């Protein structure tokens, strides 16, 4: 969706200074990861958009692993507003690839379009998206992809009574660091394939995981290519998110 432009040397507020665990993250350039403070991960990322494309904020708190990545739409990948949504698709594909990579091979990961990820038929994560103001070229100055993953359901005495959701801990996923690393690597790979193979390469990575293709209601074929409905017409985080927990509802 975007060029991941080089990131400037910057000073961050204390709440975003890397902690000891974060310094061990091995990320491909130009990604840089910082630990987020308390509060909504999407709002924190928006407050840091001047740090540039490739900035990742993440935290693992209160049973939710949250991450957000800042991107900057622009040529050569994005030249018109309709292409901006492919940034969301790219990041969503990268998140799915990362979860599949670290999950159990016998478990199936399925995407309930447009923003819910199910693992072995139980909800594991939800995705969010925010688009910044338009610049002189008519494209957003920045976009943010955020994801909130159920890390643990410690508040449940009997998790089996809530089969509609699951958690990283229950499914024996690793600690957050390697998953953040692989998310960045997969996102760079997806964007690279987009640049070499076109938008279809991005769409295929998502369509292969969609639970029901009729969930793409509103999509249409334009000039022989699949065109998804605008994200602002289909995204609805109130359908899956618990604001009090700042993550997917159980």
Layout: helices, strands, pairs:
Blueprint (H helix, E strand, L loop, with lengths): L1 E2 L28 E4 L5 H7 L7 E7 L2 E10 L11 H18 L6 E4 L3 E4 L2 E10 L11 E8 L25 H22 L1 H9 L12 E3 L2 E3 L13 E2 L4 E2 L2
Parallel strand pairs: 2-3
Antiparallel strand pairs: 1-4, 3-4, 4-8, 5-6, 6-7, 7-8, 9-10, 11-12
Helix pairs in contact: 2-3, 2-4, 3-4
How would you describe the overall organization of this protein?
The protein has 250 residues and is α+β, with helices and mostly antiparallel strands. It is 22% helix and 24% strand. It is built from four helices and twelve strands, in the order ββαββαββββααββββ. Strands 1, 2, 3, 4, 5, 6, 7 and 8 form an eight-stranded mixed sheet that branches. A two-stranded antiparallel ribbon has the order 9-10. Strands 11-12 form a two-stranded antiparallel ribbon. Helix 2 (85-102) packs across helix 3 (176-197), helix 2 (85-102) crosses helix 4 (199-207) and helix 3 crosses helix 4. The two termini are 32 Å apart.
Q: Name the helicity range.
A: 10-25%
Order of helices and strands: EEHEEHEEEEHHEEEE
Radius of gyration: 17 Å
Query: Which percent range describes the beta-strand content?
Result: 15-25%
Shape annotation: globular
The average pLDDT value, as a whole number, equals 86
Low-confidence parts lasting 5 or more residues at pLDDT below 50? 1-23
Main sheet, how many strands, which sense, barrel?
8 strands, mixed
Helical segment tally? 4
Distance between the termini: 32 Å
**Structural class estimated from helices and strands:** alpha+beta
Overall strand count:
12
């Amino acid at each position: 969706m975007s060029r991941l432009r080089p990131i400037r040397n910057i000073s961050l507020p204390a709440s975003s200074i890397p902690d000891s665990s974060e310094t061990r993250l091995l990320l491909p350039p130009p990604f840089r990861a910082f630990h987020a403070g308390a509060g909504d991960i999407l709002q924190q990322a928006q407050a840091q958009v001047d740090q540039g494309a490739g900035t990742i904020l993440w935290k693992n708190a209160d049973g939710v692993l949250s991450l957000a990545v800042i991107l900057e739409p622009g040529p050569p990948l994005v030249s018109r507003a309709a292409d901006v949504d492919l940034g969301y698709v790219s990041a969503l594909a990268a998140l799915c690839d990362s979860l599949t990579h670290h999950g159990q091979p016998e478990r199936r990961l399925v995407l309930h379009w447009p923003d819910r990820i199910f693992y072995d038929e139980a909800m594991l994560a939800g995705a969010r998206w925010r688009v910044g103001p338009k610049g002189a070229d008519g494209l957003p100055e920045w976009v943010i992809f955020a994801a909130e993953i159920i890390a643990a359901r410690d508040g449940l005495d009997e998790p089996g009574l809530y089969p509609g959701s699951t958690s990283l801990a229950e499914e024996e996923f690793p600690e957050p660091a390697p998953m953040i690393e692989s998310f960045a690597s997969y996102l760079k790979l997806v964007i690279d394939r987009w640049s070499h193979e076109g938008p279809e390469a991005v769409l295929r990575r998502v369509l292969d995981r969609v639970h029901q293709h009729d969930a793409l209601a509103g999509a249409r074929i334009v000039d022989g290519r699949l065109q998804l409905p605008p994200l602002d017409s289909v995204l609805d985080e109130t359908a899956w998110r618990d604001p009090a927990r700042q993550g997917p509802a159980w």
